[in-house]
Amino acid sequence: MKRMLRKALAVFLSVIMAGSVCMIGVSAEGAAPDSDSTYYKGAFYYHPGIGEVNSGEEHVEVYTYTDDYFKKSGRDYDEHLATLSFALATASAGSTREPNTEDGYRNKSRNAVAFLEDTGFSGISYNHDYTIKPTKDTMGVACAQKQIIENGKPYTLLVILPRSANYEAEWGNNFVLGTDGNAAGFDTGAETCLAFAKDYIAEKAISGDIKVWTTGFSRGAAIADLIAAKLIDDPQRYLGDTVALTSDNLYAYTGAAPSAADVDNDPRNEKYAGIFNGYLETDLAAAMAPVDMGFARYGTDRVLYQAENYDKMLANLAISNEAVYSEYTTSANPKYFHPKRLSLVNGSIGLVDDNNSYIPNDAKVYLQGLCTYLTQITGGREEYARTYEQPLSDLIAYYESLSSDESAAMTASITGNEKSLYLAVALYTYYILKKDEGQKEFTAEQIRQIVTQLAGIVAARNDSGNTGINAAAFAKASVLLATFLLLDADTVKGYAAGFLGDVLKGAMTASGATQEELDSVTDTESCLALTHFLSHLVFGNIWQSDEHRALNPNNDQIRAAATLIGNLSNLSVDHANEIIISWLKTEDHYYDDYTALTPAQLAGYRRVYVSASDDTAFNGSITDADGKDIAVVENGVVKNSADKWIGFTQTDNGGFFRIPADQDISIRLNTVRSAAVTVSIGEYELYDAKTSMLFDQSVNAKATDTVIISLPTVSRNEMPSDTAYSVTVIPGGEGSNILGDADMNGTVEMIDATWILRHNAGFITLSDDALALCDVDKDESVAIMDVTAIQRYISHLKAPEGIGEPIA
Fold it and tell me: CA-CA distance, 194 to 215, in Å (whole number)?
């Protein structure tokens, strides 16, 4: 009875004392208060957002992870979690290192999976849509989980990750808005993700209090925004009744999200304030769906552009991706936005700056006006859904599904087809007739000039600057323009729709379209709708005053088209993931030191895998170059690390120690019984996002032995050979039978008291030999009084005789 009471008391007190005693054992300035409060600087592959990408080519970006991000209210903005979230969203894009084949699509989620594994998430699962060639109606999503301890309370942290970028035809679903409620294409995607998450919770038998982390980029961002709002409104409906989620435990960050929330749903309500949407006001994609159609984002919008941080953003971009930096600072940038006109240069038609334009010379103002105009063109949300939604979304889905060769074939067909010029003439004429509701009178010279400029528009996106249209076609286009001007707008619209159908059929056939794909966008009704939309989008001029129209009645529409076409890259570049993350880094001081990293820091870190035969548990410590303890190893896992970069990553297959590359580190381990200990060491190259396994060794160790793993400092591009690492066994002998020496390392220290507390609490299992040394008061039990005796001995107070001395 006495022993049972003493053990019960030990268990109770160990919960109270374990943290403080453990910290004494590894005391150091900056020691983390929670067992999992370590930091992890990692890297990931991602699909680039700018430029052509060769098959198999991806870029690498870095991030900083810690569980601490999820140990405060999700309603409080965290600039570090914002950067990390966008990094994960970027990694979720379909990997271009995998080919677009049936086998390749099965592994398109590899970058997201690697990211989640590296940051300690387990049970990673993704839906069927993530493993097949995307269609307009698919929705890729992944889920994962890990355990978080906050103030002693356990939570399951659940990741709900919609696929973001490189989703091919799935992007066409962005243009499915529906007539009411949230934007239908995005809302359906959010419902799919939440249904998968609910099934995941049931499959993994998750219960109790949970935290949810959701994030996304572009289309995935809009879907993550809706996911978060739905979880705030009705978590039980979407996750089931086995788990409990509060808004404080929801962490939702999006990047470059289109607006998908119906304003009638009150998306700015305070309850959604913890959803954070980072975006740029000069991003064409993030400006959709137009606010004039009644759309917004749930939660808090954060404009990332800050003039005072622009140079810092460029520095981040230069470090992340030199090619993107070069393009952003020389050719594609909202700062380079300028009204355009057509000009003959060296015999070719080209776009040049229009310094006398009435069009605003400001990308942000232009984009706002363009979005308002799109609502006017389509007649509002309901008319858009009835007339334009199907042909536009189907055409965009088809184009986005093409390979680079197929899209090049489609473009070449359009620019080389003489009917493209006839189409441009018809679209132009239809617009001016529709706009002014009457005939226009043009001289022969004006007709020649207009046709010349329209031919330039057809070729404006052609790198060669050559229209590819012969003189006969040019002459016919002139006749068509003169003829069309004598007709009414609706008749010209019919001709334009016919030309559009022929041009699309030729281009889609050249790029390998099926008959079903052709029929979905080239039927008469679709072509009539697209004719109205394209004519007004390309030639519409919402900035032209009545006075200016009277002075320049004939070619202002040409200048409007030139401005739109000539600035497409300037209006879309701010949607690139490289730009977004570079802006996020300007507010995240964890990235301030990247320009000054030493070669050793650039090397990344070492992954140390340790296992013992028969699943034998092992304990010990991690020491620095001076032999000072900086972390505790308990049951094979790092606890209470005084160095925030030293930690342990748990995986479905075990886990590994994370050891910085710029420090001399030793890992000292003791098994609870005799076992074969296997050590494998891999070097994680931070800026290559890969691990090279260089070392593998097995040793036999008794419970009295100490296994020492030596890890010297390494530098980037100077990775040592396997001979630089070593695993040695220090036999237990003299000193291994010292009274009070729980870890049997030859000395009695405060850590020995910790091992007794942990053993009695059931956290670890000490060997029988070790237990014999722990009964320092010799009452035939190992309990709290033995801990007190060791503490008194360490503090040079009166303690039972024999502590610190060999047992006879």
Answer: 13
